[in-house]
């Protein structure tokens, strides 16, 4: 599976052995769950028994301080402090930064349109996402496509070139007893890259602390620095950003994050929270890595997949373009609120994530012996949710291989089991960055489709070959052509 990828082989295991089955990675047993009710039990109802992901002993500091990796009380404290930084109100502040990165993307795409040649769209979306991360998390303005030698771009590429997920981490999962030995012989290269990012962030923190507050750049790093000591903090029941994002219209004020909302003020912090509402500098630095670890491949793959699907389904592309053109007759520019008006675009976004969920494998560890639907789960077992299987399950998705955005009308969503569609997870441990992901991906798509037509050509691979090691992504890029639209006629 490590060579072939996990997506198809796991679906095959489930088809053969049923919705609760398993496999071994070396000596570690993995229990695969593809039953939506049992998944709901693990993710939400019985959360206190399954609060953690698989222990990743290989992540070096400061990555090991990143929310994705944290466990138990430390996770709870950091998530409580961090969740408000991803609120609707805070996302509004990110719009100008994402807009700047979108302008750079448009310039780069213009050059491809002028050339008339097919090009790797996935590479462009990767550069765009890297520019957004550099800007919102590392306080650095970039054009990574035009400046591949910039130290940030260079180190960013190295970071992904040998991520600690790759062979060495897989060996550690197979043979945990080799961990200590492997740590000693690990190449130092990885440390050089994390040192680069760590020093950059520490440098910026020093600078910001010396600046008067009104001169500080408003980015995610600053939100975290503001939250460092005694900022807002929310409790476990408010951690489920995914559920909130789906349940509330995003044009409404967010009741948790906008404390001014009369409908539901944030609950008063408990004594334990009051005592511990701080982030150490190491933790601040660790959280900046969220964007690289959790936000880079996921967002750039989503943009690429959506564009691939629109290029290969021109009738849907035309419908998005009509919606976007109508939008620009009503508004001069995009912002966090008005982007929610684009209902068909949202359906395309959801359907792209159903067919190609970048985070298709994630799970929890079992904290104490328990039983779910008559099945025993021993303490220490690892549970893996099979998102790939659920998203293609013909019981819930008729004709599952087809791209049909209308599966995501409000009515169709209301008639479906909510736990058969989990691109961002669910429950308190779900994706904290969902609002940023939606904003960033939709801002890119709106601008691309307003200015260009995406055209499938002889270089476009249909069906698309996928890689499915850590995230689900295109195996060899996504090759398309683009042509400019006549904006006077839109
Ligand atoms: C389309 C883009 C994205 C997708 C599909 C995605 C998907 C996911 C998934 C499936 C999980 C695991 C959920 C679970 O275990 O229940 C997750 C967790 C997480 N995501 Fe995202 N994500 C995306 C973008 C982002 C962005 C942009 C950020 C932040 C910058 C982010 C930050 C995180 C963090 C920090 C976690 C771990 C949360 C915790 O353990 O408390 N993600 N994401």
Automatic annotation (TrEMBL):
Q: Which family does it belong to?
A: Belongs to the cytochrome P450 family.
Oligomer and partners: Monomer.
In the UniProt record, does the keyword Phosphoprotein occur? Answer: no
Function comment: Catalyzes the conversion of prostaglandin H2 (PGH2) to thromboxane A2 (TXA2), a potent inducer of blood vessel constriction and platelet aggregation. Also cleaves PGH2 to 12-hydroxy-heptadecatrienoicacid (12-HHT) and malondialdehyde, which is known to act as a mediator of DNA damage. 12-HHT and malondialdehyde are formed stoichiometrically in the same amounts as TXA2. Additionally, displays dehydratase activity, toward (15S)-hydroperoxy-(5Z,8Z,11Z,13E)-eicosatetraenoate (15(S)-HPETE) producing 15-KETE and 15-HETE.
Entry GO CC:
endoplasmic reticulum membrane
The record's EC number reads 4.2.1.152, 5.3.99.5
Q: Which residues cross the membrane?
A: 159-182
User: Which intervals carry biased composition (Basic and acidic residues)?
Assistant: 246-257
Q: Per the UniProt entry, what are the Gene Ontology biological process annotations, in alphabetical order? A: prostaglandin biosynthetic process
- Which reaction equations make up its catalytic activity? prostaglandin H2 = thromboxane A2; (15S)-hydroperoxy-(5Z,8Z,11Z,13E)-eicosatetraenoate = 15-oxo-(5Z,8Z,11Z,13E)-eicosatetraenoate + H2O; prostaglandin H2 = (12S)-hydroxy-(5Z,8E,10E)-heptadecatrienoate + malonaldehyde; a hydroperoxyeicosatetraenoate = an oxoeicosatetraenoate + H2O
Subcellular compartments: Endoplasmic reticulum membrane
Needed cofactors, names only, are: heme
Supply the alphabetized keyword list.
Answer: Endoplasmic reticulum, Fatty acid biosynthesis, Fatty acid metabolism, Heme, Iron, Isomerase, Lipid biosynthesis, Lipid metabolism, Lyase, Membrane, Metal-binding, Monooxygenase, Oxidoreductase, Prostaglandin biosynthesis, Prostaglandin metabolism, Transmembrane, Transmembrane helix
A Pfam family per the record: p450
Q: Which InterPro entries does the annotation name? A: Cyt_P450, Cyt_P450_CS, Cyt_P450_E_grp-I, Cyt_P450_sf, Cytochrome_P450_3A
Region forming the signal peptide:
none
The organism encoding this protein is Merluccius polli
Task: Report how it sits in the membrane.
Answer: Multi-pass membrane protein
Stated name of the protein: Thromboxane-A synthase
Residue numbers spanned by region Disordered? 246-277
Superkingdom assignment: Eukaryota
Give GO terms: molecular function aspect only.
Answer: heme binding; hydroperoxy icosatetraenoate dehydratase activity; iron ion binding; oxidoreductase activity, acting on paired donors, with incorporation or reduction of molecular oxygen; steroid hydroxylase activity; thromboxane-A synthase activity
Originating gene: TBXAS1
């Amino acid at each position: 599976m490590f060579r072939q990828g996990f997506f198809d082989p796991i679906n095959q295991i489930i088809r053969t052995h049923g919705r609760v089955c398993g496999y071994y990675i070396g000596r570690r047993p993995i229990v695969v769950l593809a039953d939506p009710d049992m998944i709901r039990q693990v993710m939400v109802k019985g959360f206190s028994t399954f609060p953690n992901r698989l222990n990743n002993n290989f992540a070096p500091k400061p990555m090991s301080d990143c929310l994705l990796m944290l466990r138990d009380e430390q996770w709870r404290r950091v998530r409580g402090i961090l969740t408000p930084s991803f609120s609707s109100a805070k996302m509004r502040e990110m719009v100008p930064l994402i807009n700047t990165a979108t302008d750079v993307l448009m310039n780069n795409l213009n050059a491809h349109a002028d050339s008339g040649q097919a090009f790797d769209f996935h590479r462009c979306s990767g550069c765009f996402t890297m520019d957004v991360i550099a800007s919102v998390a590392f306080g650095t303005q970039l054009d990574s496509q035009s400046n591949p030698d910039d130290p940030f771009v260079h180190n960013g590429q190295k970071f992904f070139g040998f991520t600690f997920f790759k062979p060495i981490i897989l060996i550690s999962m197979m043979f945990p007893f080799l961990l200590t030995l492997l740590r000693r012989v690990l190449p130092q290269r990885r440390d050089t890259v994390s040192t680069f990012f760590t020093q950059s962030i520490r440098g910026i923190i020093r600078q910001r602390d010396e600046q008067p507050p009104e001169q500080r750049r408003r980015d995610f790093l600053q939100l975290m620095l503001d939250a460092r000591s005694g900022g807002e903090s929310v409790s476990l029941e408010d951690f489920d950003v995914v559920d909130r994002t789906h349940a509330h219209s995003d044009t409404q004020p967010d009741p948790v994050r906008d404390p001014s909302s009369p409908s539901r003020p944030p609950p008063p912090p408990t004594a334990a929270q009051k005592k511990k509402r701080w982030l150490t500098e190491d933790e601040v630095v660790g959280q900046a890595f969220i964007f690289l670890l959790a936000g880079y491949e996921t967002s750039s793959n989503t943009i690429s997949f959506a564009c691939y699907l629109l290029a290969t389904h021109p009738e849907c592309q035309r419908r998005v373009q009509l919606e976007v053109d109508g939008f620009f007759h009503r508004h001069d520019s995009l912002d966090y609120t008005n982007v929610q008006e684009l209902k068909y675009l949202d359906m395309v976004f959801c359907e792209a994530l159903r067919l190609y969920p970048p985070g298709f494998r994630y799970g929890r560890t079992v904290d104490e012996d328990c039983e779910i639907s008559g099945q025993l789960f021993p303490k220490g077992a690892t549970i893996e949710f099979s998102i790939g299987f659920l998203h293609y399950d013909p019981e819930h998705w008729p004709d599952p291989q087809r791209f049909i955005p209308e599966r995501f009308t409000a009515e169709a969503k209301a008639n479906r089991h909510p736990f058969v569609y989990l691109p961002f997870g669910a429950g308190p441990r779900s994706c904290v960055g969902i609002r940023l992901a939606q904003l960033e991906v939709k801002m890119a798509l709106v601008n691309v489709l307003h200015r260009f037509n995406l055209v499938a050509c002889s270089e476009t691979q249909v069906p698309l070959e996928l890689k499915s090691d850590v995230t689900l992504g295109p195996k060899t890029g996504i090759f398309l052509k683009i042509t400019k639209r006549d904006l006077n006629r839109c």
